[in-house]
Amino acid sequence: MKKLLFIIIISLFSFTFFAQDTIFVTGAERLKEWKKHHEMTEKSLFRNLPWIQVGPFMNSGRISSIVGIPGNPSIIYAGTPVGGVWKTENAGSTWFPVFDDQPTQMIGDIEVFPDDPDLVWVGTGSSNLSGSAFPGLGVFKSVDGGKTWEHKGLEEGQNIMRIAISPDNPDIVFVATMGNKYYPEEKTIGLYRTKDGGETWEKVLCDDRYTGCADVVFNPENTDILYATIWNRKETIGHVCKSVDGGSSWIKLTEGLPDGKNIGRIGVDVSSTNPDVVYVYMNNHNRFGAGESDSGVKAEKKQQGLSLNKVRRMNSKRFLETDSVKIETFLRDYGILRSFSLNDIRNFIKSGEHTPETLCDCIEKYWIETDKNRDTGPKVGGEVYRTDNGGETWYKTHTDRLYLLSSFGWSFCDIKISPVDENDIYILGVTLQHSNDGGKTFEHIEGNLVHIQPNISKYLHLDQH
Predict the structure, then answer these.
(1) What sign has the CA pseudo-torsion 252, 255, 256, 261?
(2) Are 71 and 179 in a shared domain?
(3) Contact present, 163 and 111 (Cβ < 8 Å)
């Protein structure tokens, strides 16, 4: 009992508090230090000595961005959160690094201009904003397929979430950024646009220090039309915006979408075959009430999650036989961190050290009572919405609950549509799910990051870690 209570207490109070006089290093300062490092390296007597990897070897392999070349499935670029950019020219049989000589190796997004595969943009800084998200140094551009790079500014953007290149004009580029994760500033967070290939930038969306842009995408048939998703991490507010004048002005889309607080990160994609069809995938932090949920579904009848009361009524045998995904979601919805694993819980129950009832007692005492204002019950979680009229009205595509986000929803929420079928979609939460019926039903696919090869939907690239 003491062991379980200790772990739960640690889970609840594992927060880092920064003093008011904390000084954050700016992107410009880090760029200056990189140049100094480069100059010192050139003068060093040891500059030609090779490096040998000695470890650690256990925590690596995450991929934050994958992009292919339309019409050429052999060329793929992959970006890693802390390992730079890698390229393959033989469909993944072998890879080689192309970004090692740059001042940052934290990659958020990669985009390639479809009519010129040598024109590559890289956005730096972690795009999956979990606790270990590292800042980058803005955006970089290559015109020779990654052989050389030029820094194109936005170094204070810190965490580049998405890059969108106009299909009609490679000089027009939009960059979505969340700014400094720990100390955001209005001038460094939001959606930025360049019309001259990155020589100058203007902020076109988001007007306060806490509201950033999580995603942006063009209508492939009319590049004056764009969709972007807004994310205020401080207040947990997310919504979808649309522009019909090339990004100069934006309107908030609301008809049929959840609105208000507790809407987290949102991913968006536009169908290539029917651009009136747009999907969004959102992290809904709101909790099911006793009656209606935020999506209008009777919670007691429709949601499949476990509540404290349901678990409390279980005996140990029934608890151990309950679906692992449901137990996992229950634990995370009620505030237990992933350092306290599902196997740990099961072993407590198997050994008799705890019963489902005493587990619920611990959760109530050390979680609910620590915050009287916090609603109890499971979160709504991941939701997919679709519009068939360019964003005028939206509807939720599914009735069943999606067990995808849990406590890590803020990190992901990505969605991709097949280039040949508007009903064939992939969504990324903690797991990867696929639907071939427009989001009515989903099936689990092994992997964590998805990229569909442009124009060739049978090629699907996954990150497994």
Answers:
(1) positive
(2) yes
(3) yes
Residue numbers of the domain that contains 334: 308-370
Tokens 């599914």 identify what position?
398
Element (H, E) at 358: helix 356-363
**Residues ≥6 apart with Cβ < 8 Å to 362:** 1, 4, 5, 8, 354
Percent helix / strand / coil, the chain, rounded to 5 = 20, 30, 50
Please report the sign of the dihedral spanned by the C-alpha atoms of residue 234, residue 240, residue 245, residue 249. negative
Q: What is the pLDDT of residues 434-444, one digit of tens each?
A: 999 999 998 87
According to DSSP, the residues that pair with 443 across neighbouring strands are 434
* The pLDDT value given to residue 335: 66
CATH of the domain at 125: 2.130.10.10
Angle between helices 342-351 and 324-333 in degrees, nearest 10: 100
Per-residue pLDDT tens over the stretch 263-281: 888 999 999 999 999 999 9
| 131 contacts: CB under 8 Å, gap ≥ 6 | none
Rounded-to-integer distance, Cα 321 and Cα 62, Å: 32
Residue 167 has pLDDT above 70, yes or no: yes
Helices (H), 44-164: none
Does residue 456 belong to any structural domain of this protein?
Answer: no
Structural domain includes residue 384: no
Q: Across residues 78-89, what is the average pLDDT?
A: 90
Distance (Å, rounded) from C-alpha 362 to C-alpha 359?
Answer: 5
Where among 192, 209, 226 does a domain terminate? 209
- Is residue 329 included in any domain, yes or no? yes
Output the CA angle 443-449-455, nearest 5 degrees: 85
Buried b (16+ CB within 10 A) or exposed e, 160-184: bbbbbbbeeebebbbbbbbbbbeeb
- Nearest Cα residue to 440 out of 393, 395, 398, 379: 398
